[in-house]
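WARN no homologs supplied; continuing
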Amino acid sequence: MTNQNPPNEQKSHKKDELKAVSFIIFILFPALSIAFVSTYGFIIWMIQAFGGVVAH
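OK structure emitted
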């Protein structure tokens, strides 16, 4: 079976895909990275606050 969408509908799909990829690359990945690093830092900070600094 071949895809028989009109050309303008294919352009619409490509534009939607480009918007989705741009959202993922420029908003979602940086936000998740910041959230992950911040959460990890907070957990380490709480461990040190309640358990004391780990000696080497």
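Residues 7-51 form the longest helix (45 residues).
OK
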